[in-house]
Amino acid sequence: MRSLIDIIDFTTEELDALIRTAVDIDADPAKYAECCKGKKIATLFYEPSTRTRLSFEAAMLELGGSVIGFSGAGNSSASKGESVADTAKVISCYADIIAMRHNLEGAPLVAALNASIPVINAGDGSHCHPTQTLADLLTIYREKGRLDHLTVGYCGDLKYGRTVHSLINALSRYEGIETVLISPDELKLPDYVKKDVLEKKGLPYEETTDFEAALPKLDILYMTRVQRERFDDLAVYERVKDSFILTQEKLDLAKPDTAVLHPLPRVNEIAVGIDEDPRACYFKQVYNGKLMRMALILKLLGEAQEDRANVRKAEIQAVCRTKAGRTCPNPKCICHTEQELPAYFRNLGGVDRCLWCDSEM
To answer: Is the pLDDT of residue 92 over 60?
Structure first.
């Protein structure tokens, strides 16, 4: 069964096709109004969410389908100790497709390996958020008319920001992408992303703490919030939470056509006055996210007759290893809580990394 767990699950050609479908949906919504009639999506949200959950639900409703699910782990059998694997098997009896957000990294992959219906990763901890990336790609395309030959700056929390990791991965497959990483030292982009994505593909990038100096060169400015919920040490959070704030004065240093994106929710990292600036695109991202989730649901349900589950398991077994005594060091990894889940690891860029969360073993 085909699922979307990581943005790299789709080829560049598939991403481009999703964009074309989303643009067509926007141009002629009536054409798609009953495409999912009789189909149900289960939104399994173990973490709080406004945009992502409602976006999936709106997407399915506008395709003529219906919605079931829950909006908190306390409202599900997870509160009784049910595993993600068992939940996926149960929900497969009720719905046609699953959208899952989970605080543990790797949980949607576990669900996909056990469900008999497609699973969409709606965010797993600080690991991946591929459907937000789809929204980002469509927004960039609609603002710039292309996804190549762009200078993209990421500012704020680059360590825990799963949207940043996913977008860097997606854009790395297009030609002429230059990356500028703007963050405090405590929130720098993880080395494995730099090594396995940017350096492996020979893509130019720079790291800086000088926000103002970076702004004039950017075609895209991708702002992120410093996420309190990802910090184990709140003292570190308090020290860095206001590190980079985009004001109108700073934005005036940027190009007249620089597009400002943000996955939301915003706290104080973008001044509210900037909302009226034509370069502000973050509310457009919300709308574009619904369109791309509609396109994604159509794609996965259209491919649902293909038996991909056993294929994916075979692919994992072919590239991964286990070794007695080796465990993932990430306490937020699903492998520590799921029943009988192998501590799989694979070699990426010369380093052994956990299959479920990509942490260095």
So the answer is: yes
Do 137 and 281 lie in one domain? The reply is: yes
Q: Active-site residue among 2, 21, 43, 52?
A: 52
80 part of the active site = yes
* 89/227 same-domain check: no
Helix ranges, the chain (H): 12-27, 51-62, 84-91, 107-114, 130-144, 162-171, 191-193, 211-214, 234-240, 248-251, 282-302, 309-319
Instruction: Tell me which residue range forms the domain holding 138.
Output: 130-286
23 & 76 share domain: yes
Q: d(Cα 140, Cα 303) in Å, to the nearest integer? A: 27
The answer to whether the bond into 265 is cis (omega within 30° of 0) is: yes
Mean pLDDT of the chain: 89
Q: What is the CATH number of the domain that holds 301?
A: 3.40.50.1370
Is 8 in contact with 280 (CB distance < 8 Å)?
A: no
- What is the gyration radius of the CA atoms in the chain, in angstroms? 20
Q: Active-site residue among 2, 40, 53, 101?
A: 101
Quick check: is 101 catalytic? yes
Q: How far apart are CA 336 and CA 207, in angstroms?
A: 33
Locate tokens 């395309």: which residue? 141
Domain count, the chain: 2
Domain-embedded: residue 324: no
What pLDDT digit, counting tens, does each position of 317-330 carry?
667 777 767 788 88
Hey, how many other C-beta atoms are within 10 angstroms of the C-beta on 151? Answer: 18
Number of Cβ within 10 Å of residue 331's Cβ equals 10
What pLDDT does 214 receive? 96
